[in-house]
Amino acid sequence: MNCGNVSKDRESFVLKVSKFHDIVNKIIPFYQENKVVGVKEKDFADLIKVAELMKNKKHLTLEGLDEIR
Q1: What is the DSSP letter of 21?
Q2: Which domain holds residue 39?
Q3: From CA 56, how far away is CA 43, in angstroms rounded?
Q4: Residue 4 resides in a domain
Q5: C-beta of residue 49 within 8 angstroms of C-beta of residue 58
Q6: What is the per-residue pLDDT across 36-46, written as a single tens digit (0 to 9) for each?
Q7: Euclidean distance between the first and final Cα of the chain, in Å?
Q8: How many structural domains does the chain have?
Q9: Rounded to two decimals, what is the model's pTM?
Q10: Is 25 inside a domain boundary?
């Protein structure tokens, strides 16, 4: 994915991406094309909503933070 850091955690690998730009432009589009299934699908939908709020700077207001919570 050409972003983030990969580490080994016991028996699996973990990709940690902290740059908002990478999350919005690489991670979200990747998982929109390669559908997330099961209970993680709802978590992914929440990630998309939060990213959209942050893109619109809503996280900088108390109301926006409440909506994210």
Answers
A1: H
A2: 19-68
A3: 20
A4: no
A5: no
A6: 999 999 999 99
A7: 29
A8: 1
A9: 0.81
A10: yes
